[in-house]
Amino acid sequence: MAYFCSMQLYFQKMGSGSPLLILHGIFGSGDNWLTLGKRFAEHYTVYLIDQRNHGQSPWSDDFSYSYLADDLKAFMDEQGIKKAHILGHSMGGKVSMLFSQRYPECIEKLLIVDIAPKSYQLSEHKHILEMLQQVDLNAHQTRTEIDQVLKASLPDYGTRQFILKNIYRNEEKAFAWRLNVQGLYKNLHEIGKGLDTETTYDGPTLFINGGKSRYIQPEDHVKIKRIFRRSELLTIPDAGHWVHAEAPDALFTAVTHFLEA
Hints:
Blueprint: E1 2-5, E2 10-14, E3 19-23, H1 34-40, E4 45-49, H2 65-79, E5 84-89, H3 91-102, E6 107-113, H4 123-134, H5 143-151, H6 157-164, E7 167-169, E8 175-177, H7 181-186, H8 188-191, E9 205-210, H9 221-227, E10 231-236, H10 243-246, H11 248-260
Parallel strand pairs: 3-4, 3-5, 5-6, 6-9, 9-10
Antiparallel strand pairs: 1-2, 2-4, 7-8
């Protein structure tokens, strides 16, 4: 496995075969997909990409699906990838959808995990970002202390652990965020936006949703089919929104079957 930092995006590359590019959701990073990435790497060249303002990629005040889709195109050009399978989860799924509309010639097969091309109200995300801006990381010596601070406003343990993955120690050995918290808060309205419904994508597409998630509703199927004309929808019953963490075996099987078909 190799690690790189391109001029634009940090990524991890592993395996061999046809390229498979994986895009994480908001507050995430390529590391969230490392376990599954290693399994996919037995058959594909896997790229786990940190999108701007996330992970180890650069920060920018410019943040929208348009920027993120163009980041992906620049990344593929830089790596000499002419065509690839694209898998995107949540925010990364929206990026992948827009990318398919702008650069359909660059995609072999498209996989979208637990997100629809509609607009979303992101009140919970706003609450998290407001809370993170209030945390003084310099006042704490351990992750446990920070966890206790977050617990008052974020009682769900799993969500807190997911957020805490974005904390690291900088060169001064002080805690810092890998997330551009202020930049994401400023542009949160962009992340909630829906997709252009007039431009269609005719390549093979698989939408995978968690049966316990509310991100894709039955009424969204019509819009999905209208934009992605060759799309299929598969539900993993025991998974919520974080399908890759909650049902990795089922997701791995669904993805590989679709790519090999």
